[in-house]
Amino acid sequence: LHVQGNIIFTPIILDIPLSCSFPNPCKELASHLGLDPSFTGLFVFDVGGKDWQFYDWSKVTTIATFGKYDPELLCFAHSKGVRLVLKGDVPIVDIVDPANRTAWINNKVTLAKKQFMDGINLDIEQEVNKTSPEYWALTALVKETTEAFHREIPGSQVSFDVAWSPNCIDNRCYDYAAIAESCDLVFVMSYDEQSQIWNECIARANAPVNQTLMGYDDYLKMKINPKKLVMGVPWYGYDYVCMELTQKNVCTIAKVPFRGAPCSDAAGRQIPYKTMMKQINSSMSGGLWDDVQLAPYYNYKDIKGNIHQVWYDDPHSISLKARYIKDRGLRGIGMWNGNLLDYSNDTVARQQSTDMWKALIPQEIPLVP
Ligand SMILES: *[C@@H]1O[C@H](CO)[C@@H](O)[C@H](O)[C@H]1NC(C)=O
Ligand SMILES: *[C@@H]1O[C@H](CO)[C@@H](O)[C@H](O)[C@H]1NC(C)=O
Ligand SMILES: *[C@@H]1O[C@H](CO)[C@@H](O)[C@H](O)[C@H]1NC(C)=O
Ligand SMILES: *[C@@H]1O[C@H](CO)[C@@H](O)[C@H](O)[C@H]1NC(C)=O
Ligand SMILES: *[C@@H]1O[C@H](CO)[C@@H](O)[C@H](O)[C@H]1NC(C)=O
């Protein structure tokens, strides 16, 4: 745990405001700095390092920090009125007991206060059976975490990450309606949508437009308030080795079972957007577009001669999904994760990264912070 007083800032690139200097930096909560209500709710996952310097700070409203605690990031975020939230993950079996649950929550609240953070993102992607003890405990965890944070850190935000659809994806049979009701927002992870392939074992898009939007339709059908839903889009794709590639670019993949399904995207490898952008122009196929899934892909041959098919999201496919936010009045959008773009000084890479940030808000839709 960092002790604030021991941190010495070296604000070379950033214009760190005086309020962030030694000895008691960033005391103010972002929520106290006043967020512009016309801001798009843009929820960014950050996994560490200094890429955050290159984020589009005119749009970001929340950063969930999944990397090491970085007081420089905290100060900068607060200077922009942006919330910084902790990561929360715990084996569900450990919090079925109410006393253990309270202990876990108190621990997180204490940590958040020590670090001057503005809330927590609960990222618990474990299997849960409907109406099992874990099912009730998980909902209680969300409710009690939200109550504790709101009480101890006024204006703080508690969010919960859910699968692309509420239909027991990967055996995550949670009480989604109650969970959404119990926290400030749910981040819908609209990716890894081929984690359970029940039909043909072939490479498909990470987040096909139609499948993605059907997931939101299903959440809304449960009477979840659209203002609780943040759309999560992937800034990564999947690289599959093809057992066979047909003339029509159908790539058969190895059968890797996952949580009861015979076949899964676990047969592929997750690849950052920046990696694919360096590879695509020299690939076998060049950039291709699938008119049904509304997603880009390409084929390439590796040094051993194996053929691969790579599926990903680009500004076009992302903007097709992001439109739904305005149509249905969702709270906002976000991505896994902010670090997957190329923020180097290369002109082409810079433009590609700028375009990815822009695609999140196609028509600069006003959303809820
Ligand atoms: C619950 O808390 C008790 C007391 O601290 C501890 O002994 C026990 O191991 C905990 N149980 C779980 C499942 O974490
Ligand atoms: C869910 O129930 C099934 C069938 O009873 C069982 O095999 C499985 O272990 C359970 N999973 C969890 C996470 O409790
Ligand atoms: C999306 O999927 C639904 C259900 O399978 C289907 O009815 C609809 O036509 C599809 N829309 C598009 C644009 O493919
Ligand atoms: C790939 O080709 C496109 C189209 O010719 C070009 O605009 C882009 O800059 C190229 N990308 C890289 C990384 O060179
Ligand atoms: C990028 O350019 C800026 C300003 O031109 C320079 O200060 C910085 O060191 C460069 N970064 C890299 C990684 O080359």
From TrEMBL:
SUPFAM superfamilies: (Trans)glycosidases. InterPro entries: Chitinase_II/V-like_cat (IPR011583), Chitinase_insertion_sf (IPR029070), DIAC_cat (IPR047898), GH (IPR017853), GH18_Domain-Containing (IPR051887), Glyco_hydro18_cat (IPR001223). It holds the Pfam family Glyco_hydro_18. Belongs to the glycosyl hydrolase 18 family. Involved in the degradation of asparagine-linked glycoproteins. Hydrolyze of N-acetyl-beta-D-glucosamine (1-4)N-acetylglucosamine chitobiose core from the reducing end of the bond, it requires prior cleavage by glycosylasparaginase. Its main location: other. Keywords: Glycoprotein, Glycosidase, Hydrolase, Lysosome, Signal. GO terms for molecular function: chitin binding; hydrolase activity, acting on glycosyl bonds. It is found in: Lysosome. One of its GO terms (cellular component) is extracellular space. GO terms for biological process: oligosaccharide catabolic process. Residues 1-367 form the GH18 domain. This is Di-N-acetylchitobiase.
